[in-house]
Amino acid sequence: MYSNCGVHHQNPPSMSLSSSLLSKLRLVTVDVTGTLIAYRGQLGDYYCMAAKSAGMPCPDYTRVHQGFKLAYADMSRRHPCFGHAAAMPTAEWWKVCVRDSFARAGYEYDDDTFERIFRRIYATFGSSAPYTVFPDAHRFLRWLRRRGLAVGIVSNAEYRYRDVVLPALGLNQGSEWDFGVFSGVAGVEKPDPRIYEAALEAAGGVAPAEALHIGDSLRTDYAPARGLGMHALLLDRFRTDEAETWRRSGVPVLPDLVAAREWLDAGDAEHVTAR
């Protein structure tokens, strides 16, 4: 579904190292999907394989994708943070979401058939299979930690990202990141600024001005982090049209984490502090 081919690095403007943002930071927090990892293939690939494993025809990719988006949005509204407040088990949250995804796409299954389909989908997305790590992710995170910075993950994800998915992808706590704030565990999700406050606290009470957040969404990453007083920058790995709008409004937007490292090394504090 996504490609990282053909990305050209932007050269950060040359500035005095005395103005280096890097020297002022104690913490860097990082989003996960779209920043460190990407989905491999399409949602329909995995729903198709699951349906076939239960002896059913492959559902239409477009209808399933649209059905999932609607079902996910509805579940997130009714039971945010993967059912955290309602103490809903994560598997149950996803079971309701997946059944509704199929229903909205026009597919109904008897209970036994759906259970087989769901088990396949749930197991797949709780593994490394549907994800790929961007080639610059490991190097960037380890570089930050070698510089003495704390690295935190801030993600709208449930506990399996922390316990299974990221470790299976080689993004390990203790080598690539120090701590994580995951919405399904913390009970608060982006763009709520409390998830960023939780990250600052988890890092030992770091002041917002001593922290940088890196993500790929203006609404859920950049705006709430800046609103709290943190520094922030956005990645545009897939050359989206909206990224140009972000740039025109003064938001620092870079193509990947290689450029982010160059940008930090160059001391580009002027643009990062611009609101």
What is the fold's blueprint, element by element?
Elements: E1 27-30, E2 37-39, H1 43-53, H2 61-78, H3 80-83, H4 90-104, H5 111-125, E3 131-133, H6 137-146, E4 150-155, H7 159-168, E5 179-182, H8 183-186, H9 194-202, E6 211-215, H10 218-227, E7 231-235, H11 242-248, E8 253-254, H12 257-265, H13 269-272
Parallel strand pairs: 1-4, 1-6, 4-5, 6-7, 7-8
Antiparallel strand pairs: 2-3
Describe the structure.
It is a single chain. The protein has 275 residues and is α/β, with parallel strands linked by helices. The chain has 13 helices and 8 strands. The chain has a 6-stranded parallel beta sheet with strand order 5-4-1-6-7-8, sandwiched between helices. It has a two-stranded antiparallel sheet with strand order 2-3. Strand 6, helix 10 and strand 7 form a beta-alpha-beta unit. Helix 1 crosses helix 2 and helix 2 (61-78) packs across helix 4 (90-104). The longest helix has 18 residues, at 61-78. It is elongated. 40% of the residues are buried. The model is unreliable at 1-18 and 269-275 (pLDDT under 50). This is Haloacid dehalogenase-like hydrolase domain-containing protein 3. InterPro entries: HAD-like_sf (IPR036412), HAD-SF_hydro_IA (IPR006439), HAD-SF_hydro_IA_REG-2-like (IPR011949), HAD-SF_hydro_IA_REG-2-like_cap (IPR044924), HAD_sf (IPR023214).
